[in-house]
Design goal:
With about 725 residues, the chain is of the alpha+beta class. It has 23 helices and 19 strands. Helix content is about 45%, strand content about 15%. Strands 9, 10, 11, 12, 13, 14, 15, 18 and 19 form a nine-stranded mixed sheet that branches. Strands 1, 2, 5, 6, 7 and 8 form a six-stranded mixed sheet that branches. Strands 3-4 form a two-stranded antiparallel sheet. Helix 9 crosses helix 10, helix 11 crosses helix 15 and helix 11 packs parallel to helix 16. Bound molecules: adenosine-5'-diphosphate (ADP) and magnesium ion.
Length: about 725
Amino acid sequence: MSARHTAIESISNHQVASTQDYLAHAGEEIYGQYVFHEAAQRQFLAKPIFKRLRRTIEGLEPFDPVIADAVAHGVKEWALSHGATHYTHWFVPMTGSTAEKHDSFLSPTGDGQTIAEFSGRNLLQGEPDASSFPSGGIRATFEARGYTAWDVTSPIYLQVEPNGVTLTIPTAFVSFTGEALDHKIPMLRSQEALGTQALRVLRWFDNTSASRVFTNIGPEQEYFLVDRRLAEQRPDLVLTGRTLFGAPSPKGQELEDQYFGPIRERILAFMMDLDRELWRLGIPAKTRHNEVAPGQFEMAPVYEPTSVGSDHNMIVLSMMRRLAPRHGLMFLSHEKPFAGINGSGKHNNWSMGTDEGENLLDPGHDPHANAQFLAFLVAVIRGVNAHADILRASIADAGQDHRLGANEAPPAIMSVFLGSQLEDVIEQLEKGAASASKKGGSLELGVTSLPVLPKDATDRNRTSPFAFTGNKFEFRAVGSSAPIYWPQTVLNTAVADSLCQLADELEKLDHGDFEGLTSILSRIVRANKQVLFEGNNYSEEWHAEAARRGLPNNRTTVDALPALTTQKAKDVFAKFGVLSERELAARVDINWERYVKVQNIEANCALDMARTMIVPATAAYLGQLAGGSASKGIAAVAEHVAGLADRLVDAIHALEHAQHAAHEAGSVQAEARAFVDQVIPAQNALRAAADELETIVSDELWPLPKYRELLFQY
Ligand code: ADP
Ligand code: MG
């Protein structure tokens, strides 16, 4: 029996294991158990220290290093009381994943004993080797110094593993030169920029009590799970997170029976485990369901301030990756693990709010009369229009190239969906003051036992990359594996830019001059309305219409990244102190490098699999068929397979050539372009030949677990 078939047999005998004592630890009492939250701070810190730390966490005063040792002592006592032996500074370098280096608390005392030590300096600052992380040229190999600095806004937590506990301190990562080497610092700077500009606008509306504006994030996270016994037989899934070969399953997603369908026992066991571990970490996991594609699922937490929610999303991804093997599963965060069925995205629900709890994107009952709401709404519309190119670039990578614009995800064209109610208000505003808002209503279901449902004033549009959904925008074009920080940094900066322009104009008007306000907003609407689109973003007509409107449509990463090198991009990031020109250039360099490296790994992997797995299986099958040459039918099959085998081998050579030629291209940009224009098409041709063979070669001989198995047998 082949390894594939052995795996399938063991899957059918798989017993769903209960890995937790769920009745004893059901919910509330475990929430935040592993977090140094407010109650733990109160318990482990002296009262004055506690009070000052809270003021820093709430953004009211900077951290005073004088209290560092006292805070560190409390943190250590708390961690030791939970069995921690080590601590780590956790950060988000520009690799796209997280980084941590562990140190034990252990400190020898000289008499053959040790004590547990953790100083204020240990808490505040770490010193990882900066030259081993991507720096985009900011640090050379011999210039190794970099620092991690405690991010007080993000909760300290414990990583509790089966064999030990590690105190984990979320930090920012900065070069010896003071430049940001991570995704977090620019995000925090963009929050401050947006907050400052938003407050200027609020002050014009006579809001004098709010002291801070920040953004909230509620990321809906899509992902795939496949059986590990099958997945580990596929080098492509193991190394690249996506299938580089694979004929379509005879049944795919066309019956639409997966979305919101009953959740299989094994998957639910994983989800239960996940939710409970996340709750322990104070991550408010809320929603879970089957997604559209077979083997695809989604989780969503309750929204949180972006600084915390972005870190939490990184922890969610790593927790999923860690827990899946316990259930015999492999977790796939890739944007497009399987061709021909839906890929995965992350829908970033985003809003702006004040420290007093006011949501600045809440239209209320009469949006037309809510001048402050309209001002913020119009600022967002203008931000997306003016900076559509960099927003597109912020979500560009090799994985996204397979997903954006396929018939399942928003296209590469940035547009804003408002819904009929706000669309109508904005159309009124374009001409002058808006005087009415369309109302929702109610739905009578015609059955006395069913309730009358209140009906929203607005439908939804799931094809839009940037959709208004009630009291927030949903940035739906983000990739499933992408850290939240970068797209939100760009969005915050774009909106800060709009709010700044708006505030500049408002500050010339008397407070309460709503006519003046209306004429400013009208003008912004007229200048930016081309970005508004209510229809089907997947359609051909929209691509043509968007071209007529002059909206950028950068289809691939290679088309999208140059937007980050324009003077306009440099200016906006520099003006708001989000990224210096060098910091921006570093990010762009890293994106190019990463794109080429990912494509190159995929080409290497495809070649390896084709040469060592697919060619041998094909040859073996040709050998078998040779024995049946007495039959005309079998001889014809043999001839067909032989033809495909030649195509396969030719395609291998063509891909090798294209890959070599790409390496000779000179600059990394030229190499990336060569990958798009030559290597990827060559790899697609190789895949086409292999996938056709998969549908003909004896099932016994085929070495790679098939789509029908990966997607349906778990
Ligand atoms: P919808 O049905 O509109 O998609 P859900 O209530 O399912 O909304 O929420 C989807 C995500 O949006 C969740 O993570 C939720 O916490 C988040 N969310 C809700 N309100 C806001 C808000 N004001 N700002 C940011 N995110 C929000
Ligand atoms: Mg969804």
